User: Fold this.
Amino acid sequence: MSNQIEGFIKGIILGGVVGAAVGILYAPQSGRRTRRDINTKAAKLLTEAKEEYEATLKKSGKAYETVVKQLKRLESSAEEKVDDLKELGKEAFHDTRGHLTKAVNAAVHAFK
Assistant:
């Protein structure tokens, strides 16, 4: 997404430069007036670029916050599942140990 933003900003800047160059070449006015117009257009372009940058920054901040919230939910869910699996493992271990103990005791009693 940052490549799209960079491309957009580059497009704005390039469009402004090309527009200014074409304006200079075809403008039937004095150099002083042309320079003033270029300064005005450059200032306007800079303002628009700053506004676009701030809007993009705000959107990316919101996207970041959303992703962080989703990751925290996933982390919590994963921890719960790990805890559940751990409990199942403990139960299986204790059941198996109980069965083994009974089997060993039965075998020992059978050989007596």
